[in-house]
Amino acid sequence: MRIRAKSVARRCARHAGIVALGALSLGAGCLSGRDESLLDVDLPATASGTLQVPLTASAPSGAAYHLRNARFAISNPFVEPPVDTIVSGDSDVLELQLPPSAFSFDYTITLQDGWVLKATDADGSERAIAATLEGSSLQSFTIKPTRVTPLTYQFLAGGMPLLTGNGNLAVRVAVDDSLIDDFEDGDGQLIAIAGRNGSWFTFNDGTGIQTPAPDSPVLAEVVDASANYVLHTTGRDFAPAGPLPDGSFAFGAGVAVSPRLDPKSTLALAYDASGYTGIRFDATVSFPADTPIRLSFLVATSATTPVAEGGTCTVGCSDDFGFFGALPISPFSLSRALSWDQLTQQGFGTPVAFDPKTITYIKFILAFPDVGQPPSADRFDLQLDNVSFTTAGSSE
């Protein structure tokens, strides 16, 4: 939707050749330091180009974002009349006609400080979110008649491109909401973007001691000289994997998160991650050199999650999708990206098809294969970082 320019900008808009400024206004003077009489020159329609700056983005998660308080400084001293102006506003689309370039890349555009990225909630309300601009705020570009010159401002919210429509300059605002958690906020909650509201928790089979213990807060920690926050959990004295005398099964210990929780029941709700292509993470595991350890990375869906935990499964549950493997050395560090089609079930439960629209949990589990060792030999230290969804075109 486009809104006509406010009356306070009409005089400047007429002189500068603005087609629409989407409820935006220009500062007094419009072309700072220039004689406004120079702007009265009428340019042929074919000699001008159009700057178009849509200020909204829709990420693969389906979440909507709006760049507010956006002020762009646009300059070109080589065209006649010279351009030296600032445009600003909060509408959906900004459009500005510009004379064609005299030289290649003779225009510059700068997103000035003071912008705010806001997420649009389901009820239509907006809330400011933590975001950073990737790369330089200043870019050079060329204007040619009847051609679109695409530019991208990439924001990290927590990389999804937003195509910006037609015009002789199209600035593309892109918002990256694929990050699930980098733990740099120091807490155990997911970054509150793209409908995600879960908190990390620990769990185990009850045979050993885990820190943080289940049902206690899980907080990110700084554990080494990197000064980076990571999710950190340790454990000891766990029984080797296998059947237990009470009929249960020793599986070790782990950490997990539900991307989306029911705020009342705290049960997992199905999270639609179909706009993403997979998932990636960084992990480091330390353990005794003479004790084997097995890492499982799992993605649970509604079909593999028991009804009591928010899913739809009633028989053969918890056979989640993922990868599983023994770690060869300690400490073992890995940075892994997996596409949805690389995730497979373990094979002990009811076979179902993987549906990225119904993700309920993301889990990391450490188990100790039985090689005759006592429980006192079974210890682990897990550090987890940079958990994110992957997107089409992202490096995996």
What is the secondary structure topology, with strand pairs?
Blueprint: H1 10-16, E1 25-31, E2 49-54, E3 56-58, E4 64-68, E5 70-76, E6 83-89, E7 93-98, E8 107-111, E9 116-120, E10 126-128, E11 132-134, E12 138-141, E13 150-156, E14 169-176, E15 179-181, E16 201-204, E17 209-211, E18 221-222, E19 229-236, E20 242-243, E21 249-250, E22 253-257, E23 278-286, E24 294-301, E25 321-326, E26 332-339, E27 344-345, E28 359-367, E29 379-390
Parallel strand pairs: 2-14, 13-14
Antiparallel strand pairs: 1-6, 2-7, 3-4, 4-9, 5-6, 5-8, 8-12, 9-10, 11-13, 15-29, 16-22, 17-19, 18-19, 19-29, 20-21, 22-28, 23-26, 23-29, 24-25, 24-28, 25-27
Mean pLDDT equals: 80
**CATH homolog superfamily of the largest domain:** Galactose-binding lectin
User: Radius of gyration, Cα only, in angstroms?
Assistant: 27 Å
Coarse shape: elongated
- End-to-end Cα distance, whole Å, is 36 Å
Provide structural commentary.
This protein has 396 residues and is an all-beta fold. The chain has two domains: 171 residues, no CATH class; 210 residues, Sandwich (Jelly Rolls), CATH 2.60.120.430. The strands form six sheets. Strands 15, 17, 18, 19, 23, 26 and 29 form a seven-stranded antiparallel beta sheet that branches. The protein has a six-stranded antiparallel beta sheet with strand order 16-22-28-24-25-27, with no helix packed on it. The longest helix is centred in the first third of the chain and has 7 residues. The chain starts with 9 loop residues before the first helix and ends in a 6-residue tail after the last strand. The N terminus is likely disordered.
